[in-house]
Specification:
Largest sheet: 5 strands, parallel
Strand order of the largest sheet: 6-3-2-12-13
Distance between the termini: 9 Å
Radius of gyration: 32 Å
Number of strands: 15
Structural class: alpha/beta
Length: 525
């Protein structure tokens, strides 16, 4: 099913009730947020961003070499990806980046939405600025260690979980113990099964999957867990250890946001670094004149930890505060695409970027969508609802339907009067023939009246039952489109839709406009 057979509706993000005041204010260009970002995401703004972004030939060569090494895990690189890898060596090439955890089987739908937003942004920029090259990039959060957030996905309403005893950065996890999970799936999914069975770790498997799904669009996936790339972060690591600069700057910015009524999305620590090995990723804390790695026996003096950073930059892993800075140091990047919470926490980093004289990227909200299958669209129309109605609270929708279902009170009084009049005529006729029959006529008249009253109650009850069925249908529709009471994209998995619609991704690519800042509703017709 392609986009031509789909009805596309766009609505304001605020109308969904699912996005924070921070985001709606940002999209509305609220003046009070202006100090916390650089350029607002509009096509005309990217020209200035290219001028501000400094990225040397040496940096490009380092990036290319690292990516070339990482892509050895792909047996046959898509020509579009290979072309984009080569273009990264050119001084007029820039990236548009999104990032996400290594959720198994791509996790929630918004993982896909992020990547498509990056792809479509590059398309629009290429058309606007033909003298430049634009490459969509997926930053793989390989160093994340919160396995519980990525070890499951929901498919057709059922949760599937990968159980493993591995610890540390999830990108380094072997995928060889996924057989039990793969055997539980309702059917074979070759792209995913081959990736998980044939890759040495989750980072390589995820790259294989994104390449299979988005290689034709030229998507480049990058793993920041790389020694050569980490060298760019070493000066910041040393300053972080000795001055705790990022903590002070982020806390100051966060306080300013709080004073304006915006709640911080992330919290800084005195040292925003982890120590990373194959089996652990633990915080580095300063205790007296020692630098200790929490939950281990590892301890360094200042001289020792400086030497460690110089000789083994790959062992220092930035947390959520320093990761964006690291990202912008190693990519010729113009814009970062994230969900609502991500965009909001980048606001907290503005002064940190300024301090290190790193260009602050254009912040873009990823596209969001509600996908309504043909069966759900049919249910929706039977309920006389429009797609935008569905974002209302269930009780509000129930009231709306009640108004639409309103009918006059069922009352058979007119029929009772007609029956009474008929029996009155019969009674007159009976009395003229045999007066003793009038009692019998009266009894039958009462029976008829009682029958009408009983029928009146039954009809009323049947109508009420019909309405309850309608409300149940509404409840089921809401549960299907807003699983767990939240946006579909935060729960459902790509395969729930791609299995029945092989053109699901192309349809999204055609429907999403990343710079329109509208919520997209796709309805199968």
């Amino acid at each position: 099913m392609d986009v031509q057979t789909m009805k596309i509706t766009k609505i304001d993000y605020a109308a969904t009730g699912a996005f924070s005041q921070t985001i709606t204010d940002y999209l509305g260009r609220g003046e009070q947020l202006r100090p916390f970002y650089n350029h607002f995401p509009a096509l005309d703004a990217f020209e200035a961003q290219t001028k501000e972004k400094s990225f040397t030939e040496t940096q490009r060569q380092t990036l290319y070499t690292a990516l070339e090494e990482q892509y050895t895990s792909i047996s046959e690189i898509n020509p579009q990806v290979q072309q984009n890898l080569e273009l990264l060596l050119q001084p007029n090439t820039f990236t548009i980046t999104t990032g996400h955890q290594l959720n198994i089987f791509t996790g929630p739908l918004y993982f896909v939405y992020k990547i498509i937003t990056a792809i479509n942004t590059c398309r629009q920029l290429q058309e606007k600025y033909p003298d430049y090259n634009f490459v969509p990039v997926y930053w793989m959060a390989t160093e994340d260690h919160d396995f519980a957030e990525i070890n499951h996905f929901n498919l057709f309403g059922k949760k599937y979980t990968w159980e493993t005893g591995q610890t540390g950065a999830v990108g380094r996890f072997s995928t060889q113990d996924m057989d039990t999970l793969l055997a539980e799936l309702p059917e074979a999914y070759p792209i995913f099964e081959e990736a998980y069975r044939n890759s040495k770790n989750l980072a390589d498997a995820t790259r294989t999957i994104t390449h299979a799904l988005f290689g034709a669009y030229g998507l480049v996936s990058i793993d920041g867990d790389h020694a050569a790339l980490k060298k760019a972060l070493t000066p910041i690591v040393e300053q972080e250890l000795t001055e705790q600069l990022s903590n002070r700057l982020v806390e100051q910015t966060s306080q300013k946001l709080e004073q304006l009524g915006y709640k911080p999305q992330v919290y800084s620590r005195e040292i925003n670094l982890f120590y990373l090995t194959d089996t652990l990723r633990e915080r580095i804390v300063q205790e007296g004149d020692k630098y200790n790695v929490l939950n281990t026996d590892l301890s360094f003096t200042l001289e020792e930890i400086r030497k460690e950073a110089q000789q083994h930059p790959e062992r220092f892993s930035p947390n959520v505060i320093l990761r964006p800075l690291y990202e912008e140091l190693i990519l010729p990047n113009l814009a970062y695409i994230g969900g609502g919470a991500e965009v909001a926490y980048w606001f907290q980093l503005k002064e940190l970027f300024a301090k290190y004289d790193v260009a602050f990227p254009v912040l873009m909200l990823r596209n969001s969508a509600l996908y309504i299958s043909r069966s759900n669209a049919s249910r929706m129309h039977k309920l006389n609802l429009q797609p935008q109605d569905l974002f209302q609270d269930f009780q509000e929708l129930k009231k709306q339907l009640s108004g639409q279902l309103h009918e006059e009170e069922i009352n058979l009084e007119a029929q009772r009067q007609a029956v009474a009049a008929a029996f009155a005529e019969v009674e007159k006729l009976a009395e003229s023939i045999d007066p003793t029959l009038t009692k019998a006529v009266g009894a039958e008249s009462q029976k008829a009246t009682n029958s009408l009253q009983m029928l009146e109650k039954k009809i009323s009850k049947a109508r009420d039952s019909k309405h309850e069925q309608t409300f149940k249908q509404l409840e089921n529709l809401k549960d299907k489109l807003f699983p767990g009471g939240t946006l579909q994209e935060r729960k459902d998995n790509l395969l729930t839709y791609k299995t029945n619609n092989p053109d699901f991704i192309p349809a999204l690519v055609e429907a999403f406009d990343p710079l329109e800042f509208k919520f997209t509703i796709l309805e199968e017709e």
